Amino acid sequence: MAELSPQYLQQLTENIKSWGKALGFQQVGICDVDLSRHETALQRWLDKGMHGDMEYMAAHGMKRARPAELQPGTVRVISVRMDYLPPDAGFARNLKNKLSGYISRYALGRDYHKLMRQRLKKLGQKIEQHVSDLAFRPFVDSAPVLEHAVAEKAGLGWTGKHSLTLNREAGSWFFLGELFINLPLPVDQPVEEGCGSCNACITICPTQAIVEPYVVDARRCISYLTIELKGAIPESLRPLMGNRIYGCDDCQLVCPWNRYAHLTDEADFHPRQQLQGKALLELFSWDEETFLRNTEGSPIRRIGFQRWQRNIAVALGNAPYAAEITHALATAYDKSSELVQEHIQWALGQQRQKQRAANERQTQRLIRVIEKGLPRDA
């Protein structure tokens, strides 16, 4: 690459940030490729098996913390933020209704991966118009990249105790993407950490997956259990999942910084009506063709129909007792896979326990009514 003057690189950096915002990114930051301070913590996390069944995490090893090994020639990473919080998100309402399925906010709209990757590619092509021998490569959850460490170093925010990136003006309701380049641009400075003594995210986690500040044991995380885990969900964790059938937002919902989150202008991130706040029984009634049709272009499709049914079966087991639920579970049993059958059996057991408890409560109420009507000397 021909040598470029510091003045030219500074002006180009300002242009890149302007171009990025014109493409729909709310923030653009730049950092170097030295992430070595994260390697010890990453290796410790892997050694403890906290990545669960995500074998790709261990397979790539330290390449995740070494951008230049992932993409030879890379000297800078452009980190971008794209907000995704829509109007009328309905978080609390959907969580409280135990008969409806809760889907993580990010997954209710269009799959962000392709959208952001296309715009990052456009940003790279725009830079290429000014630097002919530029080499670049966009990433959006598509390769072993420590995206939160990169965002932190590029000044987009700090890493919260839930391990997500937090921003003082935008909370955490945003996606991250990266553009690896071979251009020695001026870098941004990290911002001051803002969690302080707050432990709200650690306290609220339904499965206590945040085992210590900044460390999440994926094996206990509901997002992992409902999305990444391919096999059976551990029985001890099923009752803690409630009606969460795809992902979990609890640690973000409770974070005080999210009061500053901005609503998105991206229509693609607005929730689809066939997914938001729908009854569990309705979602469980879908056949595979309906599932594929209703999740077209959605990140939910990647888990497949079998895991979709598995997750909903658990939520139905956690729902209040209803004859309609036991009927739906029993009816689906014979035509389900072994994986789903295991979770249906568990859910039926949960429903029966609740039915017995409900009958016992009703009996006790009747006894009290009868006793109140008896004479004192009876």
TrEMBL record:
tRNA processing as a keyword of this entry, yes or no, is yes
Catalysed reactions listed for this entry: epoxyqueuosine(34) in tRNA + AH2 = queuosine(34) in tRNA + A + H2O
List the InterPro entries hit by this protein, alphabetically: 4Fe4S_Fe-S-bd (IPR017896), 4Fe4S_Fe_S_CS (IPR017900), QueG (IPR004453), QueG_DUF1730 (IPR013542)
**Residues covered by the 4Fe-4S ferredoxin-type domain:** 183-215
Instruction: Quote the record's cofactor note.
Output: Binds 2 [4Fe-4S] clusters per monomer.
Matching SUPFAM superfamilies, A to Z? 4Fe-4S ferredoxins
Active-site feature positions: D141 (proton donor)
- The residues that the entry says bind tRNA are K230
Enzyme group, top EC level?
A: oxidoreductase
| NCBIfam families referenced in this protein's UniProt entry, alphabetically | tRNA epoxyqueuosine(34) reductase QueG
Assembly, per entry: Monomer.
Q: What is this protein called?
A: Epoxyqueuosine reductase
What is the protein's species of origin? Lacimicrobium alkaliphilum
Q: What is the lineage of its organism?
A: Bacteria, Pseudomonadati, Pseudomonadota, Gammaproteobacteria, Alteromonadales
